[in-house]
Design brief:
single chain; alpha/beta; 16-stranded mixed beta sheet; about 35% helix; about 20% strand; globular
Length: about 475
């Protein structure tokens, strides 16, 4: 064991463990912490980096439980020898609503933030239910966080009593407010002015009905240097209001917007040359008209940019209407962003089989792709899914040099496809066949919510062209 410690120094171990996907392989880090002292030190740094307490909603009230029920991670992170590793904290969900002295969680949390978790740089407070004293206690603790750089709160911190205290927090680099009220919107211009030297990301999420064109104009002078902005749903804003407001952010790199149908088309044309990532949330689409309007909306913001990442999120992924085809959006991507787009996730939206082939043949930088396809059962049998990308390589080699084209197309790592027809459970042998016939970098495949992860076998175990295939358990996500 001593030889192992000498051969694998701490700096190398921490780099290796950082590659572990915490959402899928959290137990792997725990097992690594039991190897030896060096592994333990490296694993603890990642195990306790983010502490989350998000109790689910309960249908019944348990009268026997008086205090807040804490998970194992929260309790372990509260120990003095682990507290130094806690950098991110998230408190959300449905907390125990009983007041002190029966419920000591508000005072316990404030003490942990103030005395033990002194290295916190990111805090998320978005509880749906909570004891009344939680908000005042945590506000006082937040003001004492020396290294706090990212803050995410909901409307519980937007009241007339709490909002002025929240504004006392300085040196933030990222600020997110869910369902902002008029009380905090009126104070935000002054706060943003003080945060302007350090603020890089500003997001207003959820119900933003109180955000009017006048509110945006008050924000604009203080947001000219930010790189990330997000805006929720506000029926008070027209397309022109949002476009003219965003025009005053020349360095805007990441944008999140909420789409809703507007009868009036924008009268201004604004370009965002620095925009690289766009996320649009929308209601489920019902027909081609809805799909066309959404595609046009996206075009208003990214037509002249070098877009690398596009994500479309539906309010209800279960409502998928094949009559709403997003082929118009695919045409925009193929025409304007084929050489730059690397991540495209529109899992709940349908495109035609021909549009899917065009997308795969033109967008050579794709790393991650998620769409729904209306192609019929014969598509799965005839094309075996990943053969689309092999066909794309053959087609592209007729116009470009083989090494360059192959290098670009083999960046593809993850595919998420949904079809209208049901698909029986896939076998590892089928997945292995598809992997061997398609692009060699493909490591994640999802077909109608059947998720698979693959990797090449080590040369010591099997020939280099062999694949190890494993089914991903969605319940661990």
């Amino acid at each position: 064991m001593a030889d192992s410690e000498a051969q694998l120094p701490y700096d190398l171990i921490i780099r290796i463990l950082e590659l572990v996907d915490l959402e899928l392989y959290y137990p792997t880090l725990y097992s690594s912490s039991l190897v030896n002292h060096t592994f333990n030190q490296a694993a603890r740094r990642l195990l306790y980096k983010k502490v989350v307490l998000s109790p689910p909603w309960r249908m019944t009230l348990d009268l026997r439980r008086r205090d807040q029920e804490l998970n194992g991670l929260f309790q372990s992170a509260s120990l003095p020898h682990n507290a130094q590793y806690v950098l991110e904290l998230e408190i959300s969900g449905y907390l125990e609503g009983r007041p002190p002295p029966l419920n000591t969680f508000p005072s316990t949390l404030a003490r942990l933030i103030t005395d033990l978790w002194t290295n916190l740089h990111s805090i998320t407070f978005t509880p749906q239910e909570y004891p009344d004293v939680l908000i005042p206690n945590t506000i006082t603790a937040l003001q004492k966080c020396t290294f706090l750089r990212s803050l995410h709160v909901n409307n519980a911190y937007c009241t007339e009593e709490i909002a002025p205290q929240l504004m006392q927090i300085e040196r933030l680099e990222s600020l997110t407010i869910e369902n902002p009220s008029r009380a905090i919107l009126g104070l935000l211009p002054e706060w943003l002015e003080r945060l302007a030297p350090t603020l890089d990301a500003f997001n207003l999420k959820g119900n933003c009905g109180s955000v009017t064109p006048g509110v945006l104009r008050a924000f604009a002078p203080h947001l000219s240097k930010i790189h990330t902005f997000g805006l929720g749903l506000s029926y008070s804003l027209m397309h022109d209001d949002v476009l003219l407001f965003l025009e005053r952010m020349p360095w805007l790199h990441n944008l999140e917007l909420r789409y809703y149908l507007q009868i009036r088309e924008p009268t201004v044309q604004v370009s965002f040359p620095a925009l690289r990532s766009l996320l649009v949330r929308h209601t489920p689409l019902s027909n081609d008209t809805d799909a066309r309007n959404l595609s046009q909306f996206i075009g208003y913001f990214c037509a002249d940019s070098k877009l690398k990442k596009l994500i479309l999120e539906s309010d209800d992924d279960r409502e998928r209407e094949p009559d709403a085809m997003m082929d118009m959006l695919v045409g925009l991507l193929v025409t304007r962003h084929a050489s730059t787009i690397s991540i495209l996730r529109m899992d709940a939206l349908f495109i035609s089989f021909e549009a899917l082939k065009d997308l795969c043949g033109a967008c050579t930088q794709l790393v991650e792709l998620g769409v729904s396809c209306d192609g019929g059962p014969e598509v799965l049998v005839r094309a075996h899914l990943v053969l689309y990308f092999q066909d794309a390589i053959i087609k592209a080699t007729q116009q470009h040099e083989l090494p360059a084209v192959t290098q670009k197309l083999t960046r593809l790592y993850s595919i998420h496809l949904s079809f209208l027809f049901p698909i029986t459970s896939l076998s590892p042998e089928q997945i292995r066949t598809w992997m061997s016939n398609g692009t060699r970098t493909l490591r994640r495949l999802s077909v109608n919510d059947q998720d698979w992860k693959v990797r090449l076998a080590s040369a010591r175990v099997a020939p280099s062209n062999e694949f190890f295939v494993g089914r991903v358990d969605n319940r661990r996500r």
